[in-house]
């Protein structure tokens, strides 16, 4: 497995399993001189922490980050930043039974097929705890992007059949309800829906939406590192994601050119604008200066206590009720993971873009 | 721009613009000894050739491939395979006017913002002709995968509002209608719809679906080179793609764990199977041995002859009718491009997977 | 700084400074199923540990490795292996003075120029402690290579003007003297030489030689990942290396084709052999099955207590005597670092080589 | 073989064999807006062209470059630059015999071992013609570096036993003698030596030295992309290189810290300088602003007409006289190849360095 590294210039490598010593990440390529504290990172980790509502796993983890390297006197040094979160609340005993069978919807079978065996405790490397490294690194990327004027607004757009109503959209609601929805009514309806799911030992999927403002035009590298292509890859690398779209997404497939094209115009200040943003801020794989908008579809949590058919490793058909401490819906906790992957992608491409033009290269070296 | 390379082991690099000398691709990392002829590649290029129906651009290009290196006595040598298709039917005069303004829905503005200027002839590097290199390389990847038992079935699932009916699904229809739809009735309806679009100088989007059979379990590298993540990136790097989904995709977001989990069972021969395939053949980013199923949403062709509002480079608002030879729908010609990106992704990950286990590594070196 | 990752398939990323929390490495891409214990790694770290003789820094570090992930029930899982060595014997006070001036022969000035400031405690990232991550990862690579029949013999060939005499070469001597020389007489002479250096607050350079046996023919990827090119890069990435050669090296520049070419012949068992090995086991960047032989030249330790001229950051010329706990010669402790870099390079290229031929690819997938 | 790509930002991919259709290179990541003509590139190719003196192969090749993409109206567009040189003077018949045996000192045997067979015409991919792509790309890198004030002075330092005398060093001599030596007397002596070699069907090795001026301090990425490490890798990837050193190189191994450290001082203008340059311009893997100096040792041309012992593929010992058109010394023609690899390495690292500090990143995006 050589797939634990992401990025070209702003490059991260994550490690760690659910029930090992801990999980962590190395950030290599963060520019030197960025003010950075453990609190900057902890704030993000707290957003994904379990146990914050009845709709997430009761597993309690403080998930306190420790900075091991790369920061000196409050600023990044340009050298690798190593971040670790030690595991504290492992209950491996919960998982002893699942060593023998393959949980439906999980990676148990595929890991066994690839590697010959697996660390079956808590899903090993395919556990949701693997995202801690992404979130910690995403916090650093977002700190950098914040200085460049880039802002993220990420929230739950739908849970199961319950979708937010654009007419009721209120960003301040996102942090007020346990489902991170920007619509109080939808959040209430979704909670009712989730309670029903939980009563039958079932779970729900949902959709996360992310709006990024302040991205300058020109970000993204044709033809295989397009901004949308890299965002798709980044978000699709999160476990449980089954769909991704930019701007109008699948709806664009049903549209016509006349309705889908975004007309350009100069506003009264002479600034180039678009009358609409069906494109979601990306044309030809390069940002156009308007808001970047994308969505990710998450499948329902596969770990459910309802009875299911499956097989043992040893050739027998059986039925199981998956025990353990699981989330009835992963989507609200995935919000910060999606935002982290967006931030990592943008930070990398914005740094890479600095070498795109000879005039800026000359200016860089002549002004030293 | 440093984004023209795709893949880790089976690695391709494309080059070329619509109106330059030609377009091409280098394939580096194709195993030695693969039987390969120009015909193997030409067959694929012929599938994407324009001018084959009234629904694609009347621009005529033979698009004949020339193998420049990497093949000796009918077999690949293990060294880079260089493939070139020379441009023959350039009419740059058609594009002289568009140097001055930004076409809505195109990359004119974003290329100018990134690089300071652009090759405005025919879209330059963001032209659909850029896909020729991908298709030529995809043919080689598919030849390799064919020996390994991997097969592709790719077709148009919908055009604008017209979608195929699963009850009428007939794979043999795909090559019988100009829209590559596996449903004769849907193909007829879609043609009617397209004629209406064309009469008003308009265009349509659509959806391509791809089913890959014969992929062994175990392909994909957690956590940032998951098979689904790499497929998403690969397909989203095709111009005009706005959405991507695996298996049930966005529908999974509305499902429950109980309905979405695929139950495992051993069939009468003792082979592990799944009762359903909502996952689209991928669990935890690794293939599970069942069919890989994915879809890509394409936006409508942005080049339309209907009148649109836009701006000039020099600060003026104006309206335009984009001239030139354009496709009213790009989706049927995109089928082979989607298939090529799928083949390139799989070939790379199947080669990378060979080093996953110590027993196979030992076996490889001890049997020499 | 985005240069902390090495390798394509067997990929490592190191982190950590001399005086931060610790140093470590992530190994991503080690095949699953390799038996591995902390002792396997500790043995290698003990070989580079300081304070083992009067010729190395008296700084005492236990340098105990902790495995954080990637091993389950005594075997690698195929997931990232995170290894940490915590720093325990930091005396930052020793370094407070050097914040103000640039030590000759050190990276103080260049780090300041690149990043705008630096972590001046103990050399920060350019400290010799950075090599701990390489050595820990090298131990894992060597464990893998050992199963494949690859063996390393690495030693000090010369220190200052004292060079081993081939006529007295005795591999069993290497671990008997503190200078790791395979010649007892040369080791004694070199110790006398070093004592003289130390008396004048001076230091010495030297040469490390490495012989690798058991490498099968065919390893190395033309044209930019040749085995010799990758070894050169790997070894030259060790601080203080100023020269590298394969086989006859610089002596080959003075030779003729007739004297330098290694004649092939079949021995009595019909096995292809070479009468000589001027090439050092590599032809055209690919291993030829004979011993791989290379050498690295190390400059003298730049930290010396003798008085030297230098400058302060603030524009003044001054003279300094560098304090702190330093090695009068780094070469003996570099032996294991050179061996580690050799092992990492070979492990990566041997895994990459598995996909070189279609027959082995077919065999791999058909035998599953 | 997946090793045909070099570089991270300024990235090249070469292709082509000695006796195929041609050889070429794709440059991806060259900044947009660089003025560039075919003449800029042809000038470099003419420097490596064979047949210019009695000391190089009489094979006549015009080696005319054709630019296929990436340049519009005289400037680079930021998209891939594809450069091709078609082969015109192939005489495959010359090589029909060598299909059956392994030439000593060549890659015939190792290619067969790696790939199972080889393109035996003219050495296939291990032919010296492979360097055409490097030289063409190096010309583009050097054009870019020239605008940044970086200059190269590259020459032959020694041929066989004949070395230039520093006291007679005259850069203007380099282009006046067929051996590219900056010392007329040494060039005359070396020609005499080569004539003796040729009379006995023998060949000679030699050393190329390169001095790069104008490189700003701060270039190079610790710890695995150090400037010296990347130069070592780049130069060692040229066929026939057996040794590489920076600054004092192997001589530093015999030196002491006191003699080898370069003392810093501020000159009368307050500019930081070094009294000596034993380091060759690199400290801790990062340029220090003084001249970069390195040397490469080339082995003698392995193709010689004198009789040698070798083996056939089919198990027989035999003796051979290698026919064909070969250089008695490759070193003078290698000068431009070494310079090209130096330029490619520096261009890549200078672009990568732009993202090293937060202040320059902020300045870049705020000044847009």
Report on this structure:
The structure is a homotetramer of 368-residue chains. Chain A contains eight helices and 19 strands. With 368 residues, chain A is an alpha+beta fold. Chain A has a five-stranded antiparallel sheet, with helices on one face. Chain A is globular and about 65 Å long. In chain A, helix 1 packs across helix 3 (131-147) and helix 1 packs across helix 7 (331-352). In chain A, 26% of the residues lie in helices and 22% in strands. Chain A has helices spanning 38-48, 108-115, 131-147, 184-199, 227-236, 257-260, 331-352, 358-366, and strands spanning 5-6, 11-16, 22-28, 65-67, 71-72, 75-76, 81-86, 101-102, 151-159, 162-163, 206-213, 241-246, 264-266, 272-274, 282-283, 286-287, 292-298, 308-312, 317-320. At the A-B interface, strand 1, helix 2, helix 5, strand 12 and helix 6 of A face strand 1, helix 2, helix 5, strand 11 and helix 6 of B. Strand 11 (241-246) of chain C pairs antiparallel with strand 11 (241-246) of chain D, so a sheet runs across the interface.
Topology:
The structure is a homotetramer of 368-residue chains.
Chain A: E1 5-6, E2 11-16, E3 22-28, H1 38-48, E4 65-67, E5 71-72, E6 75-76, E7 81-86, E8 101-102, H2 108-115, H3 131-147, E9 151-159, E10 162-163, H4 184-199, E11 206-213, H5 227-236, E12 241-246, H6 257-260, E13 264-266, E14 272-274, E15 282-283, E16 286-287, E17 292-298, E18 308-312, E19 317-320, H7 331-352, H8 358-366
Antiparallel strand pairs in A: 1-2, 2-3, 3-7, 4-7, 5-6, 8-18, 9-10, 9-11, 11-17, 12-17, 13-14, 15-16, 18-19
Helix pairs in contact in A: 1-3, 1-7, 3-7, 5-7
């Amino acid at each position: 497995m050589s797939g634990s590294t992401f990025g070209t210039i702003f490059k991260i490598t994550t490690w760690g399993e659910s029930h090992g010593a801990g999980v962590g990440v190395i950030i290599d390529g963060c520019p030197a001189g960025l003010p950075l504290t453990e609190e900057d990172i902890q704030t993000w980790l707290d957003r994904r922490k379990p146990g914050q509502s009845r709709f997430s796993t009761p597993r309690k983890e403080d998930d306190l980050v420790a900075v091991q390297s790369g920061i000196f006197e409050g600023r990044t040094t340009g050298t690798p930043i190593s971040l670790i979160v030690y595991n504290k609340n492992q209950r491996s005993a919960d998982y002893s039974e699942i060593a023998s069978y393959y949980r439906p919807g999980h990676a148990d079978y595929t890991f066994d097929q690839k590697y010959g065996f697996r660390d079956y405790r808590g899903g090993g490397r395919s556990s949701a705890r693997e995202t801690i490294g992404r979130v910690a690194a995403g916090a650093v990327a977002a700190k950098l992007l914040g200085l460049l004027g880039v802002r993220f607004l990420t929230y739950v757009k739908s849970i199961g059949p319950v979708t937010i109503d654009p007419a009721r959209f209120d960003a301040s609601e996102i942090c007020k309800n346990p489902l991170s929805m920007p619509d109080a009514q939808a959040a209430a309806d979704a909670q009712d829906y989730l309670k029903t799911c939980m009563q039958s030992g079932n779970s729900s999927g949902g959709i996360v939406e992310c709006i990024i403002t302040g991205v300058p035009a020109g970000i993204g590298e044709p033809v295989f590192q397009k901004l949308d292509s890299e965002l798709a890859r980044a978000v699709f690398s999160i476990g449980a994601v089954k769909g991704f779209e930019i701007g109008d997404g699948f709806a664009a497939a049903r549209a016509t050119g006349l309705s889908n094209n975004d007309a350009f115009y100069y506003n009264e200040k002479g600034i180039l604008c678009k009358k609409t943003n069906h494109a979601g801020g990306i044309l030809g794989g390069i940002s156009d200066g308007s808001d970047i908008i994308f969505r990710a579809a998450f499948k329902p949590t596969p770990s459910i206590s309802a009875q299911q058919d499956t097989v043992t490793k040893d050739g027998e058909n059986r039925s199981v009720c998956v025990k353990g401490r699981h989330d009835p819906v992963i989507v609200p906790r995935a919000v910060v993971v999606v935002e982290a992957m967006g931030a990592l992608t943008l930070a990398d491409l914005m740094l890479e873009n600095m070498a795109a033009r000879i005039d800026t290269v000359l200016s860089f070296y002549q002004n030293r």
